[in-house]
Design goal:
4 domains, alpha/beta, binds adenosine monophosphate, binds magnesium ion, Molybdenum Cofactor Biosythetic Enzyme, Chain A, five-stranded mixed sheet, six-stranded mixed sheet, elongated
């Protein structure tokens, strides 16, 4: 039995960063930029008004006050998107809207609130009283204050978030080169499984792993390819695996426990290679990994990484988080592969009976300056609702028989509270 670290290292050594491709910016969320992005424009392109008001020369307001306004002649109005043909000279002003380019000659913008505009009759709009002293530069956003033309704005390797999508749009980029998303094929195995749109005959259960695992693939940026259910027979398993040979990674669930061991082991040995089988963890001990022989788009031989997750619904999700997620991230070109962890005070004891690393479902909440973790209840690896209650996994190291209440343990955060409003935290 190997450690979780060894298992992860083996898997990562089999997966490679994928190719880059151009993608419309809105579809790149969570992907890694494969090119440096420089700007061909200044942003903003021109000096413009930060407020609705009047573009003036500050010198005209040297003695202005609310009691003794400086009166200026209004020679034009300029709205956002337009450019005034007129020039502001001493004694004149141009009415200006937020975002409109500052007219020639003006050095500041006085906002409406600092003028007597509200008190004026409509007919008297060709003159404006300025009620305070202004200084050059007031309420003007300078050309290039956000981005200077020619500068490097986003570096290759940046993970694209909504802010980067916005920045790319501000540069006028409709698509960018990113590392493509991996296609992850998912095959459930088990004679007891029924598809979720079918009636449930006696003795059967719904296939939930395909859906929890596909949702994880999608959450972490991959493209799930659902291969359905294979029976526990050699033919059915081989047929199922063959449907996934164009994927970047194959994930099967189930068929790794002792009962199914022989058929699956034979099939995997015939169709590819087995790298490891069983990991010193709980849940998830029957996790297995290897490769399956396939072909690439040009027909050349290729080994597809094949992750065999345990069938138990909790085990398949937990092992996915620990080893499949980092593999997907690596393929996507991400550098930071680990899920965030926090140190939390454990509120109930967690027992570790057989020297494996235990991952216990927990509800983590912050109170004051500390995190606290309590268990979700029964920890059986078939209790999928415990995953729905949890936002973290408390780690009990393999050499610890127990973590006592009040002790500190590492907790892998699966979700933060924003994403877990269904948790009764606190
Ligand atoms: P196995 O690893 O095939 O021995 O499965 C272990 C347990 O997980 C059994 O109770 C299976 O019924 C259950 N199981 C296996 N695959 C699935 C699945 N796709 N959805 C829900 N439960 C499953
Ligand atoms: Mg099975």
């Amino acid at each position: 039995m190997i450690s979780v670290e060894e298992a992860l290292e083996k898997i990562l050594s089999y997966v490679n960063i994928l190719e880059e491709e151009p993608v419309p910016i809105l579809d790149t969320l969570g992907q890694v930029l494969a090119e440096d992005i420089s700007s061909s424009i200044d942003i903003p392109p021109l000096d413009n008004a930060a407020m609705d008001g009047y573009a003036i020369q500050a010198g005209d307001t040297a003695r202005a006050s609310s009691k003794s306004p400086a009166y200026l002649r209004v020679i034009d109005t300029v709205i956002a998107g337009a450019i005034s043909e007129r020039e502001v000279k001493p004694g004149t002003a141009i009415r200006i809207m937020t975002g409109a380019p500052v007219p020639k000659g003006a050095d500041s913008v006085v906002r409406f609130e600092d003028t007597d505009e509200a008190r004026r009759e409509k007919s008297a709009n060709n003159e404006i009283g300025i009620l305070c002293k202004t200084k050059a530069g007031l309420n003007i956003r300078r050309a290039g204050e956000d981005v200077i033309r020619g500068s490097l704005v986003l570096k290759k390797g940046t993970v694209i978030r909504p802010a980067e999508v916005g920045v790319l749009a501000s540069l006028g980029k409709s698509q960018v080169r990113v590392i493509r998303r991996p296609v992850v094929a998912i095959l459930a195995t088990g004679n007891e499984l029924v598809e979720i749109n079918q009636p449930l005959p006696p003795g059967k259960i719904y296939n939930s792993n395909t859906y929890s695992v596909s949702a994880l693939v999608r959450r972490y940026g991959g493209i799930p390819k659902l291969l359905g259910i294979a029976l526990d027979s050699e033919d059915s398993l081989v047929a199922g695996l063959r449907r996934g040979l164009d994927a970047d990674m194959l994930i099967t669930s189930g068929g790794v426990s002792a009962g199914d061991y022989d058929i699956v082991k034979d099939v995997l040995a015939k169709e590819g290679e087995i790298s490891f089988w069983t990991v010193r963890m709980k849940p998830g001990k029957p996790l297995a990994f290897g490769t399956i022989k396939g072909t690439d788009q040009k027909g050349a031989g290729r080994n597809i990484p094949h992750l065999r997750l345990p069938g138990n619904p909790v085990s398949s999700m937990v092992t996915f988080e620990l080893v499949a997620r980092p593999a997907i991230f690596k393929m996507m070109g991400k550098k930071s592969l680990a899920k965030p962890t926090v140190e939390a005070v454990i509120e109930e004891p967690v027992i570790n009976t057989d020297g494996r690393r235990v991952y216990t479902r927990a509800i983590v909440a912050r109170r004051g300056d500390k995190y606290y973790a309590r268990l979700t209840g029964p920890q059986g690896s078939g209790i999928l609702t415990s995953m729905s209650l949890a936002n973290g996994l408390v780690i009990v190291p393999e050499d610890r028989a127990e973590v006592k209440a009040g002790e500190i343990a590492q907790v892998i955060m699966l979700d933060w509270n924003e994403e877990s409003s269904n948790l009764a935290t606190g």
